[in-house]
Each structure stands twice: as structure tokens, then as C-alpha cells.
Design a protein that fits this description.
This protein is an alpha/beta fold. It has helices spanning 3-15, 23-32, 35-40, 63-69, 78-88, 113-123, 191-194, 236-241, 267-271, 294-305, 327-334; strands at 57-59, 95-100, 129-134, 139-140, 153-161, 175-183, 200-204, 222-226, 248-252, 283-289, 312-317, 348-352.
Length: 360
């Protein structure tokens, strides 16, 4: 080899930085790429070849959109590709994200058999974060899921939730998102049973009223709750007393209608503070509040009155129905002692779609 060739060879070796990256950095890069690009990385160099098969995170969220454009749902379609990726994967799967699309291949009762197999595989690979978004028919979560005790984050949508009798809870779970979840009748479950370390909870459009048991947790710091219906037998005061560490609360108008009478039947309760101050609450977000609804107005004012450390308030108001008599609510708002407290730590207030005026 001539001196010129030697210099050229040395220069090429020095410039091949991508092959000389530390192992942990290679996996970090791969996990930031879309899965199809991570697979293609095998052509970069021998050192990168099949590195993707040991990635700790597999995200199939964008697969459906990509293949739907090409109508690739036959032999080389959605399920086949996911199965191939999982079959080639050799390392532990710590994070698994998938979206089940609303396509014909998932409409039959037997069509979720493949999904069951994926759940079984995850239960054997130490999964810690699972995001399962389902836009198809309701899917019954298999018993394997409840053996994934390493889970720290769980997001499930449009599923039937029925833990086996021997289930003792997800002992490491800190983050839980539930949307369109059907709890089988007779299932008795609450947060201490489901997750003793839960800090973040988001519950949306879950039809079973027993789900309100989930609002009892001494560890919760973040709560998002959206119920599209009235719930009898639960009071706002009880809810707040069960959330001693809550810092961020996001809710909709029905949060303030959790009970027919809201425990606001007494004027004494309306004007005074509840026995349990929500001292930890710093951020409050309320969606679609009807300020003309006296129950909701009492509810949010009660919450504000009992949140002395609130720093930010974000409210989206519903457009007032002209057929609704807002007179009682307006009279209450105009009262000098309407709020009867000073929110001295409040820094930010955002109100959207607030309308109406009073002419003198």
C-alpha cells in the first residue's frame, strides 16, 4: 500500500464516526427514529447491522398511516409486519406502543388472537411502558397483561378491564391513562389495589361509575378526569379529601356534577370552606364549564375557595344557551362575597369563550 493510499485509508477510518459511536448512544439514536428507519439502519455498517433487534422500545404508532396509503393489508400487511419485527427482536421490550386501526381485519371475534399473542410476548419480556390505543371494536385485555408487574406506565383505550381474582395490583405503576374502558360488572377495584405508587391518572369516557373508586389515592399529584354523565352518591368534598397531594387537576363540567346535590344543598356549605383544604393544588384546568349552571358555578368557586396555593387557572367556557335562565348564576356572581377569599399565589388566568355583558 502506497503512502497516499495509507493516508486515505486512515482518513476514512477516522471519518467513519457513526460506526465508532458508543453502544448506548447507538440505541438512543435508534429509539428516536421511526421504526421503519431504525430497521433500515442495518445498511449503515456492520456494527449497526441488526442492532435494532435489541432496541428496548418498539413503536408501531405510525405504521397504520404508512401502510394504509399503499393498501398494504394483504400478505405483507399490518399484522404480518408486526409479527416479523417481534420474531426478529431478541432483547427485552421495555416500551411498546401500538395503535389498532379501524379496519376490517379486526372486526371478527378471532381477529384479536394476534394481539393476544403480542400481549403474551410482552408479559415475558419485562415491559415497563405500554401504550395500547384501539380504534376498533372493544378488546378484552388478556390475563397476561396483569402479570406485567414491572409496568410503570400504562395507557389503554377502548378495552374491557377485568383483572383475574389473584391480581394484587401493579406494584410499580406510577402513570395510568384509561379511555373508553369498560369495567366488568362485579369488578371491585380501587387505586390502592390497582397501583400503590400511582402519581398520574387520566380517566376519560369510562362508562362504569365504579371507576370513581380510582379517585381515591394518597399519592396522586396529577389527575385528569372526564365523565360525560352525572354520578350519584359521590360528593366533591369526598373527592377532594381523598387527594391530599394533588398538584395538577384537569376536569370537565361534569366533575362539578358528580352528585345530584353536590353536597351544596346547604347555603352554609356554599359560603364556607370545606373541612379539607386542597393545599397542594397549584394548577387547575376546567373544560367546557357552564357558568350559567348554578351547580357548576358553586362547584368551581368551592374548589377555588379551598385552593389557597393555586398558581394557574385555565377555563374553557361553553357558549351560553339563550334558552337557559342565567339570572340566578349572575346574581350569585355579583354578590360581594361571591368568592370570599384571596388567591394570593395566582399568577396566570386564561378564560376561553367567555361571553356576555351587563348593561347599566
Amino acid at each position: 500500500m502506497t503512502e497516499s493510499n495509507k493516508r486515505r485509508f486512515v482518513s476514512c477510518v477516522e471519518e467513519d464516526r457513526i460506526s465508532n459511536l458508543p453502544e448506548h448512544l447507538i440505541f438512543t439514536i435508534l429509539e428516536l427514529l421511526p421504526l421503519q428507519d431504525a430497521v433500515k439502519s442495518s445498511i449503515l455498517s456492520k456494527r449497526w447491522r441488526y442492532r435494532w433487534t435489541k432496541m428496548g422500545a418498539l413503536a408501531f404508532n405510525e405504521f397504520f398511516n404508512k401502510f394504509a396509503k399503499n393498501r398494504a393489508f394483504g400478505r405483507n400487511g399490518f399484522i404480518r409486519i408486526i409479527n416479523k419485527v417481534l420474531n426478529l427482536h431478541t432483547g427485552p421490550i421495555l416500551r411498546f406502543f401500538i395503535h389498532i386501526p379501524n379496519i376490517n381485519m379486526f372486526h371478527n371475534d378471532d381477529s384479536f388472537e394476534e394481539v393476544d399473542q403480542w400481549m403474551l410476548l410482552l408479559s415475558r419480556n419485562g415491559v415497563r411502558e405500554l401504550i395500547f390505543s384501539n380504534s376498533n371494536k372493544c378488546y378484552k385485555l388478556p390475563c397476561y397483561l396483569f402479570s406485567c408487574l414491572e409496568l410503570t406506565k400504562l395507557t389503554v383505550q377502548n378495552c374491557v378491564f377485568k383483572p383475574p381474582l389473584e391480581f394484587k395490583g401493579f406494584i410499580n405503576l406510577t402513570d395510568l391513562h384509561l379511555k373508553y374502558i369498560d369495567f366488568i360488572c362485579g369488578t371491585q377495584i380501587n387505586l390502592p389495589q390497582l397501583a400503590t405508587k400511582l402519581h398520574n391518572l387520566f380517566v376519560s369516557n369510562c362508562p362504569d361509575v365504579k371507576l370513581l373508586r380510582l379517585l381515591h389515592s394518597p399519592c396522586l399529584t396529577v389527575l385528569g378526569t372526564y365523565f360525560p354523565y352525572r354520578v350519584e352518591g359521590i360528593t366533591l368534598e369526598v373527592m377532594l379529601s381523598n387527594l391530599p397531594k394533588i398538584e395538577y387537576l384537569s376536569c370537565d363540567d361534569f366533575f362539578f356534577k358528580v352528585s345530584k346535590h353536590l353536597a351544596f344543598t346547604s347555603q352554609v356549605f356554599i359560603e364556607k370552606k370545606t373541612p379539607n383544604m386542597v393545599n397542594s393544588l397549584k394548577h387547575l384546568q376546567v373544560l367546557y364549564l357552564h357558568l350559567g349552571d348554578l351547580d357548576q358555578l358553586h362547584g368551581i368557586l368551592c374548589l377555588l375557595r379551598n385552593s389557597p396555593n393555586l398558581e394557574s387557572l385555565y377555563v374553557i367556557c361553553f357558549k351560553t344557551d339563550p334558552r337557559v335562565d342565567v339570572g340566578p348564576a349572575l346574581s350569585y356572581l355579583e354578590a360581594p362575597d361571591c368568592l370570599d377569599c384571596t388567591l394570593s399565589k395566582l399568577k396566570s388566568v386564561t378564560m376561553i369563550s367567555l361571553e356576555g355583558s351587563v348593561s347599566n
